[in-house]
Each structure stands twice: as structure tokens, then as C-alpha cells.
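Customer escalation, tier 2.

The customer says the design service returned an amino acid string that "doesn't look like it belongs to this structure." They asked us to rerun it and document both sides in this ticket. The original C-alpha cells are below, unchanged.
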């Protein structure tokens, strides 16, 4: 092969290499553009990561506040639970006291009923008996004063009837 052919071959090869270099140059330019886009995307991701990091810090702070609030609520709930136990104990004491009071009232009612029966059966009868005896004495003593004697008898009877009417009214009021 001659030198000129060799040179032509080399030249052709160089042109091919030149074309390859031009292609590589274009590929490099494309890669450079893509690298710029990737760099921009990386900057955006970095900014977003900073925002996310800030958001995470805010969330962490809020979680700490919530945790503190929860602890406060838990403490308050414990206090309320203690108060409820105290109230429950006091209510038990009050129930016991009310039961004692009911028994006392029942006992007093029974006593009052006994006193009423005694007044109606014994005392009223005795007063009537004394009044009748007094009436007999007065009759003998005051035969001349018959009008006074009747007044006294009517007065005693009226008092007794008034007392019985009052008792009947009380009984009616109790049953009503």
C-alpha cells in the first residue's frame, strides 16, 4: 500500500474518530445538560429535605408539648380519681348517717305515738274523772250558783272537744 493510501486511510480513520469525537462532544453536552438538570433537582430535593427537616423539628416540638400535656392530664386524672374516692367514702358515711337518722326518726315517731295514746287514754280520762269529781263537789258547794256550774262544765267539755278535734285534724293531716 502506498503512502498516500495509508494517509487516506489514516485520514478516513481520523475523520471517523473526529465524527466519534463530535458525537462524544454532543453526548458530553447532553450529559452536561442532564447533569445541570440533576444538579437543579438535587438542589430542589435539598430544599425539600430542609423543609421536611424543619417540619420534623416542629412536629417533634409539638409532640413534646403534647407529651407534657398528656402528663399533666394524667396527673389531673389521678387527682380527680382520689377526689372521687374521697367523695365515695363521704357518701358511704352520709348513707350510714342517714340510716341512723331514719332509725332515730322512727324511734321518735313511735315515742310520740305512745305519748299521744297515753294522753288520749290515760290523761284525758283522768282529767275527765277529776273534772267530774270536781263537778260533784262544786254542785254541792254551789247549788245556789247553778249557772256558774254549767259554765264550768261547758268550758271543760268544750276544751276536751277542742282537743279531740285538734287531734283528729292532725291525724287527717298525717294521712293526707
Amino acid at each position: 500500500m502506498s503512502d498516500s493510501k495509508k494517509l487516506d486511510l489514516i485520514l478516513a480513520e481520523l475523520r471517523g474518530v473526529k465524527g466519534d469525537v463530535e458525537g462524544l462532544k454532543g453526548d458530553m453536552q447532553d450529559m452536561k445538560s442532564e447533569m445541570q438538570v440533576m444538579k437543579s433537582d438535587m438542589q430542589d430535593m435539598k430544599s425539600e429535605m430542609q423543609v421536611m427537616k424543619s417540619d420534623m423539628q416542629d412536629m417533634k416540638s409539638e409532640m413534646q408539648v403534647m407529651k407534657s400535656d398528656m402528663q399533666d392530664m394524667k396527673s389531673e386524672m389521678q387527682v380527680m380519681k382520689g377526689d372521687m374516692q374521697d367523695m365515695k367514702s363521704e357518701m358511704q358515711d352520709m348513707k350510714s348517717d342517714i340510716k341512723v337518722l331514719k332509725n332515730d326518726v322512727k324511734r321518735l315517731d313511735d315515742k310520740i305515738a305512745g305519748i299521744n295514746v297515753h294522753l288520749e287514754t290515760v290523761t284525758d280520762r283522768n282529767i275527765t274523772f277529776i273534772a267530774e269529781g270536781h263537778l260533784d263537789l262544786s254542785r254541792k258547794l254551789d247549788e245556789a250558783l247553778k249557772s256558774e256550774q254549767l259554765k264550768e262544765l261547758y268550758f271543760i267539755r268544750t276544751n276536751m272537744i277542742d282537743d279531740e278535734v285538734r287531734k283528729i285534724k292532725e291525724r287527717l293531716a298525717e294521712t293526707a
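Tier 2 assessment: The sequence is consistent with the input. Residues 3-141 form one domain. The mean pLDDT is 86. Sent an explanation to the customer and offered a walkthrough call.
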